[in-house]
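Complex 177.
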Amino acid sequence: MKEKIDIAAYAQTITEALPRGILLNTNGAKFNSMVIGWGALGTVWGKPAFTVYVREHRYTKAQLDSTGEFTISIPLDGPIPSIAKVCGTQSGRDVDKDVAARLTLEDAEIIRVPGIKEYPLTLECKVLYAQKQELEKIPADIREKMYPQDVDGTYPMANRDAHTAYIGEIVAAYMIR
Ligand SMILES: Cc1cc2nc3c(=O)[nH]c(=O)nc-3n(C[C@H](O)[C@H](O)[C@H](O)COP(=O)(O)O)c2cc1C
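Predicted structure with flavin mononucleotide bound:
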């Protein structure tokens, strides 16, 4: 069951959960979920929006580029270690994470990407705009720390490749009960 929520009333919950790890879900060739620690809840072009930052070689990026849709799933009592481990360290290229992390999927209301019962606060988003970040425009200290040039870009914890920012319009927001 879905219980509609007022996004603004959960702004603090969402922004506090983010750095601890929430889930970004996509559904292209298959359902996939990855942990994100960066994101932004806000307003753009007069629309409620959630922006995510996805590195070049993530399986998630290919799915986002082909479908233009994602759901955000936020835990209410902190990340669940068994889910966070699978979704934050393994790639959808190698594993079916819904099976490996024992996720209970719930069909979305408007888009094709399910939400996750275990992380009940759900935002359905349609991509309005995607832009690859230009490393040379990032302050040097951050660039050296976040994008060192000594790790192969295909490695799961790769830090060589830039992020693409995807601004998603929030088209539905609810709690899965
Ligand atoms: C706490 C935490 C936060 C993360 N935040 C992000 C993020 O904001 N953007 C990103 O591209 N990867 C982030 N990652 C890494 C991905 O979750 C990880 O590489 C994942 O295995 C990618 O899965 P995929 O290949 O199925 O897309 C984070 C990982 C952890 C553990």
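The longest helix spans residues 59-67.
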